[in-house]
Amino acid sequence: MAEWTTIESDPGVFSELLERMGVKGVQMEELWSLDEDSLNSIKPIYGLIFLFKWQKEADARPVSIDYEERGVFFASQVISNACATQAIVSVLMNRPDLEIGPELAQLRDFTAGFPPDMKGLAIGNSDTIRLVHNSFSPPQPMVPDKDEEDNEKGDAFHFIAYVPVGGCLYELDGLKPGPIKLADCGEDDWLGKAAAAITERMGRYAASEVKFNLMACIEDRRQKYGRELAQQQHLQERIRAKLGNSQPPAAAAAPGGGGSGGGEEEEELPADPDTLAAQLSESEAEADRLRQQLEMEEERRRRWADENVRRRTDYIPFAFQLLSALAERGELQPLVQAARQAHTAKWEQRQQKQ
Amino acid sequence: MDVIVEFRAGRMALVENRLVADPRKGLLRVCQDEVGLSHFCWYERDAAGAAAGEAEQDIVIIPGECTFSKIARPGSRVFELRFPEEKQRNLFFWAQEVAAEDDDEYVAAINLALNMDVDGGEDGGEGMQADAGAPAAAGAPAQPGGVAPSPAAAITSSQLAAALGSILAGSAGQQGDAGTHQQQMQQAAAAAASRGPSLADVLNPELLAPLLQSPDMVQRLAPYLPEQHRTAAAIREIVSTPQFRHQLGLFSNALSTGQLDTSQFGLPAGGFGVLDFLSSIQAQADQQKQQRQQPDGGAADMQE
């Protein structure tokens, strides 16, 4: 099988990965807490991904038997370097409400009915996914990257996805023979149950100081803020129309995925002008807040894009040029001396502690 | 002081660029003192073959500042204690051990002894695996083709002596397996080199910042960077980013373990580690400067 490089476990990397794979309107977000407020602030959430340094632990829980009939996509983890990408793909394949793009849709259809290991192989053999995954490291670095950095960057990290499918909450672990059903659930209460399962896991690992991370697969926030902003603007138009006794604007079609369904009946506006005016300023304030959020999100995306450019850059030729230029100007030696002095001083300090 | 490694060898002196041997019988020792510092010592040997009197040379060695190697010349058994940054401190010795096949083992053992972090590690004692076939560099498990560059685990001098002893004892029965010798040499030299400052240490962002201001510098570096990062400000930022420092770290490791072919940079092969690499760069730069100052115009500026 062709090579998969290690990539950083970073929401900026994963979000662009999604985009490049053809997925629309979805991004990844790092989660620092599982409390209700934190989760609410990033809804709609499509799946949760828990990352941790894998270690062998006994797990007597049975694997779900009828998951295939229930429409769960489960693939075995075949490539260790791709576990993050695979976990994300697992979430996407299990959310028919998402626009996952032609590549992934094709993969899903092609592997329908395949056993987990063949699904895993299909993912591993997907040139598209692999090339996108690999595009987050420098191309053909001059320097071998194999052994030592793997443990830091993600090779030894394991990913487990939590996703609701057909009324059940599943834990998808590519190293197990199948998905594990955690609970029956609905779209509005699966998060709480997943949070409980994850919290329990974290409790187990806290004792042994295992490092872990949590990510959520959510709606693209620019899309979400844009949609909510449009809703506010439409509401404002309606209110102004009513206040001015003019023709109300046409009902807005609900743009974008996720969120509320389109074509709902619009709420009746109050008759009293003072109440209307109050509602108007409320809406304007909310619109301002949304614009601010949108701007912050755009800023963050710019920063992520910049970081991804850096990840792709092979800096060795640059480093060599820099060193040569410094050498030519006689500026290299002083730097070397300073480094050696610092190194010696550190060493002597350690000796003195003996 | 505890003796870690012993090697029978005589001194040599550089006289007008030629090595001249001191005919006296001698003994090279790497020792460790009470505070854990490594000493490189040379004693004259008496008629019975034991060290006679005080050490004629007793140098305290800081890990990473030197390497011990056999000079690559067929038929010669001359060894060099090399200080890449202070050539005037280089020392030369000629082998007085009978069996030449063991030379490589001794070189490996001496390098490890000089550059190991003995009893000084911040990472707590993990104990070294005394494995005759593959000397565990600095407490980390030996990896094929390279050495774990992370800081050494603490070991005691007796553990070190025991491990090195087993390397040396192991060689007595060996058929001269070129692969293992080379691996041991590489690992020992790598252990030496990886203890010194890294490229990231040398390219310290604070110290670099003022050096990256000039338009000349920016212009020279720009072609090697993506379009959006070709300004002075962007370049200053780059040298402190995690992506750059990460790649520098990989590069330093590759240099330390001899995995890098320096000829791809137009530099002579050989040498181990960051300091040697930087010396080569400086030498090349000096050479190019000299050429440019030739009356006939000299070579072009850039050598790709």
From TrEMBL, chain A:
Q: Does the keyword ATP-binding apply?
A: no
What spans are recorded as compositionally biased (Basic and acidic residues)?
A: 286-308
Task: Tell me what reaction this enzyme catalyses.
Answer: Thiol-dependent hydrolysis of ester, thioester, amide, peptide and isopeptide bonds formed by the C-terminal Gly of ubiquitin (a 76-residue protein attached to proteins as an intracellular targeting signal)
Residues at the site labelled Important for enzyme activity: 173
Give one GO molecular function term.
cysteine-type deubiquitinase activity
Gene3D superfamilies registered for this protein in UniProt:
1.20.58.860, Peptidase C12, ubiquitin carboxyl-terminal hydrolase
What EC class is this? hydrolase
Taxonomically, which superkingdom? Answer: Eukaryota
Any one Gene Ontology BP term: protein deubiquitination
The annotated regions of Low complexity compositional bias extend over: 272-282
Which UniProt key words apply to this protein?
Hydrolase, Nucleus, Protease, Thiol protease, Ubl conjugation pathway
**Which Pfam families does the record cross-reference, listed alphabetically?**
Peptidase_C12, UCH_C
Q: Where is this site: Transition state stabilizer?
A: 77
Q: Which GO terms describe its cellular component?
A: cytoplasm; nucleus
Q: What EC number(s) is this enzyme filed under?
A: 3.4.19.12
Mainly localized where? nucleus
Q: Which PANTHER family match?
A: UBIQUITIN CARBOXYL-TERMINAL HYDROLASE, UBIQUITIN CARBOXYL-TERMINAL HYDROLASE ISOZYME L5
Name of the protein in its database record: Ubiquitin carboxyl-terminal hydrolase
Q: What is the lineage of its organism?
A: Eukaryota, Viridiplantae, Chlorophyta, core chlorophytes, Trebouxiophyceae
TrEMBL record, chain B:
Q: Fetch the PROSITE patterns from UniProt.
A: DEUBAD, PRU
Q: Where is the composition biased (Low complexity)?
A: 128-151, 283-294
Subcellular location, record wording: Cytoplasm; Nucleus
Could you give one GO CC term from the UniProt record? proteasome regulatory particle, lid subcomplex
Q: Which GO terms describe its molecular function?
A: endopeptidase activator activity; proteasome binding
Annotated ranges, domain DEUBAD: 190-291
Could you tell me which residue ranges the Pru domain spans? 1-117
Keywords, ordered alphabetically: Cytoplasm, Nucleus, Proteasome
Disordered, as annotated region: 121-151, 171-192, 283-304
Asked whether the keyword DNA-binding is assigned, the reply is no
User: What InterPro entries does its record include?
Assistant: DEUBAD_dom, Rpn13/ADRM1, Rpn13/ADRM1_Pru, Rpn13/ADRM1_Pru_sf, RPN13_DEUBAD, RPN13_DEUBAD_sf
Q: What is this protein called?
A: Regulatory particle non-ATPase 13
